From TrEMBL:
PROSITE patterns: NUDIX. This is Nudix hydrolase domain-containing protein. The keyword Hydrolase applies. Keywords: Hydrolase, Magnesium. Its cofactor is Mg(2+). GO terms for molecular function: hydrolase activity. Gene3D superfamilies: Nucleoside Triphosphate Pyrophosphohydrolase. InterPro entries: NUDIX_hydrolase-like_dom_sf, NUDIX_hydrolase_dom. It comes from the Bacteria. Signal peptide: none annotated. Residues 2-140 form the Nudix hydrolase domain.
Length: 157
């Protein structure tokens, strides 16, 4: 069994909109809506909070303050086991922008669009327009205010 730890961030603005990225992956034949996300453990000794903040900078060009979490999502399939910690972050610095193609390629990303969605706009997006059921569920949890304080995650050193 292989264990992977993933992190993701629902980036919000002061008007309670959500930043979504249009991303193409090998699993899909077209770009679909996604949130900021990445793999934990591929950057030295950073913790999951630092990894989430780094991913926001890399994928959306923004600094964020993590404020809450929608929890940890567990995926077990075909002998693989994934834990995905999903955070909610507010922008503290920068304006959302797509990284240059060369930089994206170095991280195996293919993001073609980035934009804000109001809660009403998100509710109108069909679940099939999201990159995965898991990402759709995370966004729905945020929409339904199924959030928890960050101190629910106990980080022991």
């Amino acid at each position: 069994m292989e264990l992977k730890i993933k992190i993701s961030v629902i980036v919000t603005d002061k008007d309670h909109g959500v930043l979504l990225l249009k991303e193409k992956t090998e699993k899909h034949d077209r770009p679909l809506w996604n949130i900021v996300k990445g793999t934990f453990g591929d950057h030295d000794n950073e913790n999951i909070f630092e990894a989430a903040i780094r991913e926001c900078k890399e994928e959306a060009g923004v600094e964020v303050k993590l404020e809450k979490t929608t929890g940890c999502y567990v995926i077990q399939k075909d002998g693989d086991f994934k834990l995905q910690f999903n955070f909610i972050g507010k922008i503290t610095q920068g304006s959302p922008q797509i990284a240059e193609a060369k930089e994206q390629a170095s991280r195996n990303e293919d993001i073609s669009d980035i934009r804000w969605f109001t809660p009403d706009e998100i509710r109108k997006i069909d679940s099939k327009e999201f990159i995965s059921k898991k990402i759709f569920l995370m966004v729905q949890d945020w929409l339904n205010n199924k959030t928890y304080p960050l101190d629910i995650v106990h980080y022991l050193e």
